Amino acid sequence: MNTLVGVGVGPGDPELLTVKAANLLAKADVVFVPVAAGDPGTGRAEATVLHYAEAWRIERVEFALHDRVHGPARERAWDAAATQVAAWFAAHPGATAVFATIGDPCVYSTFTYLAATVRGLLGDLDVQLVPGITAMQDLAARTGTPLVEGRESLALFPMTAGAERFRDALERFDAVVAYKFGRLLPEALAVLRETGRLDDAVYGAALGLPGEEIRPACDLDPDVAGPYLSTLIVAPRRGGRGSAL
Ligand SMILES: C[S@@+](CC[C@H](N)C(=O)[O-])C[C@H]1O[C@@H](n2cnc3c(N)ncnc32)[C@H](O)[C@@H]1O
Question: I need a surface site. Which of 117, 162, 169, 170 has the fewest CB within 10 A?
């Protein structure tokens, strides 16, 4: 049986990886890594994988990672990527392939689409998942921000879903983490200011990577966009110890 394992390799720091992930990367027949189409530079997941796998076991798979809309270019990239992985299995029947993804493979990851399309092409494929540490967890740890306590709820929100839904999430959940804002950072900060939540928020960009930036959201320039790899945690308002129980 062909086996495809989606492995989370964490947000950036090569030590933020499970032992299981490290062991798999060290022994897999091949490690596929997603890279942006046409970008010759080292991919984000690839940079971490290089700490655990020799370069000759790494195969780059191109995706339309920077496309903002879901269109034909993205569809073609998924099909081409799945064809590449399926062709590898055709040449290595019964082998195990790892697909490395930043953070966790079940959180906004290209792995979801890839695995479904490869299974469609091959008919039979054992798909497994190894969880990874997310940027949200790294930022919470680095800033000493307990995400949730007692009966508090937590929402993970993609800013690409729009400012109105962000506002709604802030009303309905105790803690809200925002992903995928980058150029939408001024919009996210405006909502936080309007809802009185700016002082509850911390910001982290390029966590564990060169150029990392971690600061209270109220210290950010309200008009300047952030990089794609940026995360905001809006922490719950809390009373004293155990107040959320
Ligand atoms: C397509 S999602 C991938 C999420 C990833 N699978 C995870 O579990 O964290 C990309 C978003 O994750 C967040 N992110 C991932 N790595 C990050 C990092 N090193 N620093 C800050 N944010 C990061 C950003 O919000 C970015 O827009």
Answer: 162
Question: Hey, how many other C-beta atoms are within 10 angstroms of the C-beta on 159?
Answer: 21
CA of 245 to the centre of ligand 1 (A): 30
| Total-model pTM | 0.94
Of ligand 1's listed atoms, the one at least distance from the Cα of 134 is 9
Helical ranges in the chain per DSSP H = 19-27, 44-49, 72-91, 111-122, 135-143, 163-172, 185-194
Best residue among 99, 134, 137 to mutate for probing ligand 1, ranked by most atoms within 8 Å of CB: 134
Q: Which CATH superfamily is domain 135-234 in?
A: Tetrapyrrole methylase, C-terminal domain (3.30.950.10)
Q: What is the residue-level pLDDT of the chain in tens, covering all 245 positions?
A: 999 999 999 999 999 999 999 999 999 999 999 998 888 899 999 999 999 999 999 999 998 766 666 778 778 888 999 999 999 999 999 999 999 999 999 999 989 889 999 999 999 899 999 999 999 999 999 999 999 999 999 999 999 999 999 999 999 999 999 999 999 999 999 999 999 999 999 999 999 999 999 999 999 999 999 999 999 999 999 877 777 77
Nearest Cα residue to 86 out of 124, 143, 141, 29: 124
Q: How far is the CA of 58 from the centre of ligand 1 (A)?
A: 22
